[in-house]
Design a protein that fits this description.
Blueprint: E1 2-6, H1 11-28, E2 32-39, E3 42-51, H2 55-66, H3 69-79, E4 82-88
Antiparallel strand pairs: 1-3, 1-4, 2-3
Helix pairs in contact: 1-3
Length: 134
């Protein structure tokens, strides 16, 4: 889960880069995007999820995307919208049944949340640090 603090009023500027370029580019690199969200209480906060089948696949997918042409072409525009992009939580499933599905094949699109759907009204996410052994 990634939580970006954006420069005031720049949420839409980030979306003009993120939506047309970074979603497909990351999925092409083998990542699965689980959704992108705007914080109702903070209009300058962008929260999004991406997943990986394994830590090895994570490394490969991140290297592929961040060394690739889409990131190189659009990173300055994206970074100009952000105050902080380092608020990242590396989450793992609590049970094997909740693990992400099979990784997306390189070059194939993965599923994303359709935020334009009239049925989608938002999400509530609670993150809790579990004590090892619980």
């Amino acid at each position: 889960m990634r939580r970006y603090a954006l420069r005031p009023g720049h949420f839409d500027d980030l979306q003009r880069v993120f939506q047309p370029w970074f979603i497909a580019g990351q999925e092409h690199a083998g990542m699965r995007l689980g959704g992108q969200f705007r914080d109702r209480n903070d209009p300058d906060r962008f929260v999004w999820f991406r997943g990986f089948a394994s830590m090895d696949q994570r490394r490969e997918a991140l290297e592929s995307f961040y060394s690739g042409p889409l990131w190189q072409a659009h990173r300055d525009a994206a970074n100009a919208t952000m105050i902080d992009s380092d608020d990242v939580l590396l989450l793992r499933p609590t049970e094997p049944d909740h693990r992400p599905g099979v990784s997306v094949a390189t070059g194939q699109p993965g599923p994303t949340v359709d935020l334009s759907s009239p049925r989608f009204d938002g999400a509530v996410v609670t993150c809790s640090r579990l004590v090892q052994g619980w």
